[in-house]
Amino acid sequence: MCIAVLATVSASADPVFRVAYRVRVSDRGIFSLGPLEVASPAVTQDGFSVVVGGGSGRLVVLDAASGETSFEVQLDGGISATPLVLADRFVVGTDNGGIYLVGADGRMLWPAPARIKGAVRGRPALWHSSLIIVADDTSSVHAVSMADGSVVASFSAQSYARRGLSPFTVFGYPDPLVDGDLAYVGFETGAIAALKPKGTDGSDAVSSLEPAWQVGPCSA
Count of CB atoms within 10 A of residue 35's CB? Predict the structure, then answer.
């Protein structure tokens, strides 16, 4: 993957773009076209850094102005999803089901990465400041504790197909959207669900994810 940053030059009436810098994130493969890269970069909240991962599992943090590498971390598994950038940390999912919490200095903040069954294809989302919501390519969504990286709850949409909803997929892997108490997630089954956290013991601890509603816009 090669990151290119474009700048606008307004000397003429029509805007002209030039390349400010290029940075190679992933090495080329054995084929001339190189690896297929799908992860989009993210920018830190202060606008000073660009965060991006590649298919080789390399997470790179760049200076946004110069393109110089601030630091890089090698993760176990390729990175296909855009990292979630928080104030002083990044949440990164990998193709082999690993979820990492990386500090702004490159340190791993969990004792071990969270592990889910499927590949992370969409950007994770922050929920209630203490949970990370991650969707995978098995039509499942998971709630991960920000405190220690444990997977506290999961929900699968595979059962929707048995209710007459289409088994065909929505193209792509959309990011979960969090709004208040609900997380909206699109699944490969063609279903969309609004999920809410639930604690079975009546406490604030989340033990399951329950659908507030679900629809099948791709129903047969």
Answer: 17
* CA dist 183 → 115, 134, 155 (Å): 20, 10, 12
Q: What is the pLDDT of residues 65-88, one digit of tens each?
A: 999 999 999 999 999 999 999 999
Nearest to 156 by CA among 213, 113, 210: 210
Structure-block tokens of residue 73 = 């971390």
Decide: 85 and 103 in contact? Cβ < 8 Å. Answer: no
Other Cβ atoms closer than 10 A to 14 = 6
Q: How far apart are CA 7 and CA 69, in angstroms?
A: 19
Cα–Cα dist 74/54, whole Å: 10
Residues 6+ apart with CB under 8 A from 61: 49, 50, 51, 69, 70, 71, 72, 90, 104, 106
pTM comes to 0.82
End-to-end CA distance of the chain: 38
Closest CA to 101 of 117, 83, 79: 83
DSSP, collapsed to helix, strand or coil, labels residue 5 as strand
| Token pair of 15 as six digits | 């805007």
